[in-house]
Amino acid sequence: MSEHLYTYDDPPSQRDLDKACAVLEKGGVIGAPMGPNWSFCCDAANRKALDRIRRLKPSHPKDRPFALVCSDMAMASTVGNIDHQLYRYLKKAWPGPFTVIVKRNRSLPRQIKDKRQVVGIRIPKCDMILALVSQFGRPLASSSIPDQADGAKLGMGYQIFDTYGHGLDLLLDLGEELPCLESTVIDFSEGFPVLVREGEGDPSLFGELAEPED
């Protein structure tokens, strides 16, 4: 049975973190604030949970992996290859509304059973989420919750629960309305920054950006 849990992040509630971690360990799917938008998230190593998110969001391209949410730079470095130049950029950009695409770390297939050559990584600006991922001990797979078919935005937790509660095990709600903005996506997989999608956040933090090829 799905639960709508009002919680807080100053500091995060240990009891609520324990409950959310237990849901993730059992292969559950959580709805949660992820910086400027709401997201579905689950254990990135659990295929059944990933399939549940795909059913909740059929618009997500089948050939595109979900972004991996990390708690800090140390965890992100176990997921993707972050060189010294990118590290300097990310120290300014994270936590924040940026997803960075990099070549995967060699250990990634052992962590999530995936043969992808590149990976998208996020460290969102949300203390509760960072504490959750840190306690869980490994990255979460994440996909933003889309607008309604008529363009209506779901900014409040109760709207998310009313719409998607049937497919969630837990909704973590800080009681705040989110602007429902996409993250900015920067591709560093070829060693230089390419702007894939401009959303929330200033992409100039990553220096001079190339435009993606058509």
Characterization of the model:
Pfam families: Sua5_yciO_yrdC. Residues 14-201 form the YrdC-like domain. One of its GO terms (molecular function) is double-stranded RNA binding. This is Translation factor SUA5. It comes from Pseudobacteriovorax antillogorgiicola. The protein has 214 residues and is of the alpha/beta class. It has a single domain (3-206), classed as DHBP synthase. 29% of the residues lie in helices and 22% in strands. The protein has seven helices and ten strands. It has helices at residues 14-25, 47-56, 73-79, 84-93, 108-112, 127-136, 157-164; strands spanning 3-6, 30-34, 37-43, 67-69, 98-103, 118-122, 140-144, 170-173, 184-187, 194-197. A ten-stranded mixed sheet has the order 1-8-2-3-7-4-6-5-9-10, with helices on both faces. A hairpin with a 6-residue loop joins strand 9 and strand 10. Helix 1 (14-25) packs across helix 6. The radius of gyration is 16 Å and the shape is globular. The model has no long low-confidence stretch (mean pLDDT 92).
Spatial order of the strands in the main sheet?
A: 1-8-2-3-7-4-6-5-9-10
Give the total of beta strands: 10
Q: Which structural class do the helices and strands define?
A: alpha/beta
* Helix-residue proportion: 25-40%
Domain module count: 1
Distance between the termini: 45 Å
CATH topology: DHBP synthase
Q: What is the overall number of helices?
A: 7
From the coordinates shown, what is the CATH architecture?
A: Alpha-Beta Complex
Query: What fraction of residues sit in β-strands?
Result: 15-25%
Question: What's the order of the H and E elements?
Answer: EHEEHEHHEHEHEHEEE
Q: What's the shape?
A: globular
Low-confidence stretches: none
Radius of gyration: 16 Å
Biggest sheet layout: 10 strands, mixed
The CATH class, by name, is Alpha Beta
Overall pLDDT? 92
CATH superfamily: DHBP synthase
